# Entry
Amino acid sequence: MKKVYALITARKNSKTVKNKNILKIGRDTLIGRSIKTLKKSKIFEEIFLSSDSNLYLKIGEKNKIKTIIRPKKFSLDNTPSAQVVEHFLNFLTISNYETPKIIFIVQPTSPFVTKENYKSALNLFSNKKAASVISVIKTPHKYHYENQRTLDNENKIKFKFKNTASLRQMKKETFVHGNIFAVRTKKFLQQKKILAKPIYAFKLKKNWHAIDIDEYEDLELSRLIFKKNSKI
# Structure
């Protein structure tokens, strides 16, 4: 398999949790944890950090990975991830890097992704049909789509789906996406999508592998998990 690159995307000015990309789990910032895990996986020829924050970029430099100054226009709340990847590919061309066959888009706010998770994702590309790969986690019974309901003005319940199975064993197994995204560069350029089709997936074994820090409660939970499992 040709070159595989990792692209860590970390912009400043996050709204819900301020500067969440440099908050710490244990001794490491979230960016630092991501870099360590990527290096431990030993599947990436190059690791890049794309950010509009000089502070974030300095963390990347300290950890001896390549850094990319991301323009403000690609660092807005509504900037599509595909545009960040396009900027990354343009950077590679200008900087005379070889274009990779596969790009992993890495979120520092997912602190418990493991090196084995990355390897599992890469292995799925041995199937030549796979244009992109994501991780998934089984939907908990409580949040299964057949349990969805609406409330009227009097708070009277109406189920959205008829003939729903009452027993969890009878409900169709469903999944929600986790936090690993990888795409063949060729397919990305053709479709302009990180999740280029056809999309293949692998199941995360533990729910906490899929944690994404978006609220302060997520941060508190992550620190508690780390405290109980300090080897992760």
